[in-house]
């Protein structure tokens, strides 16, 4: 199977018996959903999603990363074909080649590497023992990619995959600041196993966010529309403030490759089905597994839990939502987390904000694996408010509020500000909000 993990990494397992925390917020969220939708609807949804996952996981296990749509740069000007759009919406992810020209991306990488080196000791990075995730947000190199006309067109194209009848949003992209990765060869990285971003407990606890998943909680997970921006635009993703949680809705998270990567060489792994994954994850806390481990895959043997239990496997309020083989067995993660196809400098990888993904723990390549994290963010009221403040902060030397960073980037060697931006770029950066 192309893209399959050759050996499951030493990622944490979230025991089905582990309680997240003695925390009333967990209990209240669970009780609110049971009260609103009723036990029978939740039971119905559980049986249906586990049944649906049987065929989905068989398909992913057989086809591997061939399920991930790969588009040429022609889509930037011509748009997605009907077939491409259907495949992207089902998988929840896509690779778009050569959004940035290869040699330009290579040059940007050299400049990023030097920028980090020139400001060593000032720029923060993690993990502490083997830094590779650099907390820089307003460097000239990042801004050259963000302001690139082709990149902005790609973001707008991706935003248009979402629909909103309210007329209160626009696919016009806004730039959400995120960091850069520069990972040396042979560096093991276990810090980002299978997880879903955009909040964790907030999906259950915040009423506006919970509403997004009404079909799932109503017993019909197969009817969940993962592309409805009308509901998603008002969702509070960061009910529990933490650097792991974006306050802004990202239609697609994404990275732009600055160097080559492939399986076991610092790549990224995706679970290429968005509707089923998020449905299963959201229903999982309402059920306890059978005592007989041989019955684990039989959804009918799981017990509905309406007690004052605060068991939300893989859920911590200040972290992204984590998943594991033990806690989420019907996802068959070991078979269904697949590496994206081989990536070249200038290629981009995009994934739905509800998609399960993980960073390749291995890097057996010969050169650094480097990417710029740049998302596709549509224009919403929440986004406009945040991006306007983000711009004011950047111009004053403050790092974005979501990151809780404290470095004054205007003092970094090589900092250039926003000189030379086109009108389109200035709009995306929030100058006219």
Automatic annotation (TrEMBL):
InterPro entries: Gig2-like, IPNS-like_sf. This is DUF1479 domain protein. Pfam families: Gig2-like. It comes from Dactylellina haptotyla (strain CBS 200.50).
